Amino acid sequence: QVQLVESGGGLVQPGGSLRLSCAASGFIFSRYTMSWYRQAPGKERELVAVITSPGGLTNYADSVKGRFTISRDNAKNTVYLQMNSLKPEDTAVYYCNAVSRLSGETYWGQGTQVTVSS
Predict the structure, then answer these.
(1) Could you tell me which of 36, 39, 113, 40 has the C-alpha nearest to residue 78?
(2) What are the two backbone dihedrals, phi and then psi, of residue 109, each rounded to the nearest 5 degrees?
(3) What are the residues facing 108 on neighbouring strands?
(4) Strands 46-51, 32-39: pairing kind
(5) In the chain, N or C terminus with fewer CB closer than 10 Å?
(6) Among 57, 53, 51, which Cα is nearest to 31's?
(7) pLDDT tens string 78-109
(8) Alpha-carbon distance 5 to 20, whole Å?
(9) What's the CA gap between 73 and 22, in Å, rounded?
(10) pLDDT value of residue 55
(11) Euclidean distance between CA atoms 70 and 2, whole angstroms
């Protein structure tokens, strides 16, 4: 059974930091490109960051470059999103996404809420 379980969301003040985690199971994690997406109320889901495997190449949305860092630990089947200098406009539900390099098969997590507010 495939599972992507996000954690680490919450309420943080502007300028603060959060670290999101996504624990994967039920598939060969190292063969999947992992991404974080987010969706704010009334807006479309958007790509935040992506990391490949192998190689660990990364790419970021312009709105988060220099503030967010995506990383992965293939031994732990986990992908992370370190979010620094958070802004109110970062408020959204953050989703973990996995895409197979071989087949394009795609999995989604259930999402974790991040709220940036004073």
Answers:
(1) 36
(2) -85, 180
(3) 97
(4) antiparallel
(5) N
(6) 53
(7) 999 999 999 999 999 999 999 999 999 999 99
(8) 10
(9) 10
(10) 83
(11) 22
Q: Are 94 and 86 in contact (CB under 8 A)?
A: no
Residues with Cβ within 8 Å of 95's Cβ and at least 6 positions away in sequence, in order, are 6, 36, 37, 38, 39, 45, 108, 109, 110, 111
Please give the C-alpha separations between residue 13 and each of 27, 32, 36, 51, 66, in angstroms, as whole numbers. 36, 33, 21, 27, 19
Within the chain, strands assigned E span: 3-7, 10-12, 18-25, 32-39, 46-51, 58-60, 68-73, 78-83, 92-100, 106-108, 112-116
Query: What does the DSSP 8-state code read for residue 26?
Result: S
Tokens of 101: 């390099």
- In angstroms, the CA 24 to CA 71 distance is 14
Is residue 32 within 8 A of residue 97, CB to CB? The reply is no
6 with 94: CB under 8 angstroms? yes
User: What sign for the dihedral angle of Cα 81, 87, 93, 97?
Assistant: negative
